Amino acid sequence: MRHIRYTLPFLITGMFMLALYMPVTATAQLVASEFSTLTQTVDGTDISIAYYRPSRRDRDPLFGGVMKYGDIITPGANMATTLEFSKDVKINGTAVSAGKYSVWIAFEEGSWEFLLDESWERFHGPHPVRSDLKYGFMVTPTEVALENETLTFDFPSVHEGGTTLRMHWGTTMIELDIEIEPTPLVNITAKEAKRYVGTYDVDVAMIPPYTIFEGKRTYEFTYENGFLHAIMDIGPYTDPHDMAFYPQSENVLFPVILIEGVPAHSFEGGLFYEFTQDEAGNITGFEGRMPNDVVWMTGKRQ
Length: 302
Known about the structure:
By secondary structure, the protein is mainly beta. Helices cover 6% and strands 50% of the residues.
């Protein structure tokens, strides 16, 4: 009988190949602190927070107990919570440069300091030295009736000039005011607007939510009170909107809703109207386009 001797490398290779073809049973399990990300965009500025979300699990008190006063901790678990800004912002009135930061909180009874560190890719411990951190903002914790079992960050309010970042765990909540520099609307001049003033026969396609019907309309573009505008009833709401039009590029305008004569909601970066002209430079019509360049409205000047 012939005996075959297997060397150790051969055995290891064989075991590895066998493992490749063995059936694998996938198992899922709940991680103690699940990972979460949240991004809020305000006028082109992206504000993103990424964190692991610990749960309370009957631990009480959380602040002043699990997290002792005098400690500096990241509000999360595992890797440090991060906060990122695509553009410069202000937090509670203090200028903060665009970038990504790890988040820390220095706990004192009744008064906390929310801290940002330029070194963001780090574990939750050991905590950084408070004096070495880039930014610090004093915040006052408040007690609320609603209890959050799991640590939660959210943006409860968003407005033209910024947003509020809120942290809520247990019955304790803190909020930070984040300001952004609004993009200035450069209005069309009376001379420029004159080219577009007139009556247009319009065909509208049914493309929800931008339109709530398909068919024909007649819209009048006028220049009044410093705005080139037209009253349109194409949706997504049933009430007609007074739409002002601002220049984006040559013969391309974007709409802004006027409320009581004041610009209130901009679609810049979304909807736009591309106007056509003849050889003499006279406006002949337009195409209303969606962000993906799909035509949803075609207008021909009378």
